[in-house]
Amino acid sequence: xxxxxxxxxxxxxxxxxxxxxxxxxxxxxxxxxxxxxxxxxxxxxxxxxxxxxxxxxxxxxxxxxxxxxxxxxxxxxxxxxxxxxxxxxxxxxxxxxxxxxxxxxxxxxxxxxxxxxxxxxxxxxxxxxxxxxxxxxxxxxxxxxxxxxxxxxxxxxxxxxxxxxxxxxxxxxxxxxxxxxxxxxxxxxxxxxxxxxxxxxxxxxxxxxxxxxxxxxxxxxxxxxxxxxxxxxxxxxxxxxxxxxxxxxxxxxxxxxxxxxxxxxxxxxxxxxxxxxxxxxxxxxxxxxxxxxx
Length: 294
Fold this sequence. Notes:
Blueprint: E1 4-8, E2 13-14, E3 17-18, H1 20-33, E4 37-40, H2 52-66, E5 71-75, H3 81-92, E6 98-102, H4 111-125, E7 129-133, H5 135-138, H6 144-153, E8 157-162, H7 167-177, E9 182-185, H8 191-196, E10 201-204, H9 207-222, H10 226-242, H11 250-258, H12 275-287
Helix pairs in contact: 1-2, 3-4, 4-6, 9-10, 11-12
């Protein structure tokens, strides 16, 4: 179900408002690049800075624009179970294919709390859940034992977006639980390694601008052309790295602004990039093969 490249779509802003013309243009370019799906209202979309009204309007607009041409995963996770359920109520109106649910950040729940949280989410969602494991943002790395018990208790978790940089732990999780859930990449810079671990899909922030590169990488890899796939990654890698010089999605938005697809505007508490970072990204973008960019 979750095979291929999913773009964690940004929310383009213009003078403080959501720029729907820019959003439509981005969606069309991603579909033309051959992506398999979109993750709406994920971290890259700045959901903590969006009102519930804006979230609903964005979901309505994107669902209509995509029009069944790609799968849709909606990010609904929060560090409050009640808030997560509220997000699901909003998103359910648009019948997404699945929900992305981050492990609650800041709270750092114990096993019983985590099981209770995901059980409540599953009961409300009545759709497949993608557990989002990103220790760098949540402050909590799930141990293999903890993860195993959670997956056993909540069978509605059908996939894991794995964004842990502890590669040994990722290998162990994929080995032990790969027959129970699908594993999706959450770190763009690890994509070749994750394909080697038989990850069927990637939810990509860098894909906002490098979708053609990621689609091509996976296609070549699945055709057994691993050297050619790695060559594409090598060409794209400087920009992949640059898109995370500062916190996501500030660099992604700046890069997109450089090619005229939206403004670099973000909402507080995020701020605009440092001038030095801007110059670096602009140069790396200019050096990246154009066929790898949307």
